[in-house]
């Protein structure tokens, strides 16, 4: 059996493919395992809890894991070590989530691919490998276009009393927001601050009828193009292709931003897992 994973910072989507081509795939979801916030032992424990009933780990012969935060051999090994513990007979392959996005969006064709979910990532792809990447710099320094960036805008304006009353009430009810010191504690002292920031993107979607939220989303995507996309050489030669929940749920605003910056709009997908299944099945058939 072959196991594929698309691992974001918030959640990880898995698909188990049986050796029999006619067998339907098994999909399940676990927490996201960004190795900047997780160690191997914690990933092992979480994944063992998250496996669906009936999945026999020792029958998995190969794991292809594409994940957020896998930016160096050391970070890749944090995830790979956990996967080897859970699936002891499997060949384990760990790569960055950006390669998954490029393969899902472009197959073996060259082009531009991006991720706009909890965090941001983007690249130029030559059909086999990533050839150029403008660094997103993470939620502290960048992540323009992502849920963390949008959440940062909303949270900043909430603390300064600048969000509409209905949205402010929803932020209080959904996140239990207290005074400034409590919010700063969530950001600087408690685990997974990137998830905390990105969680406000859902409220922006629920309150998107508010002009304030429309403007915040437009500002988020405009920053993404100005700070990242336009710094790719000859970026207007490429169509704009993207995976990720933030890009997908606000795809009309994202497409409008791409058009303003002279890029034709290609594929905007919520997640890459189905396209990755097709990619790996085609590769196995060759």
TrEMBL record:
GO function terms (MF aspect): kinase activity
Keyword tags: Kinase, Transferase
Signal peptide start and end residues: none
Record field: transmembrane: none
Acetylation found in the keyword field: no
SUPFAM superfamilies: Actin-like ATPase domain
The UniProt record lists the keyword Transferase: yes
Gene3D superfamilies registered for this protein in UniProt: 1.10.720.160, 3.30.420.40
Name the UniProt record assigns to this protein: N-acetylglucosamine kinase
Organism: Hymenobacter nivis
Organism placement in taxonomy: Bacteria, Pseudomonadati, Bacteroidota, Cytophagia, Cytophagales
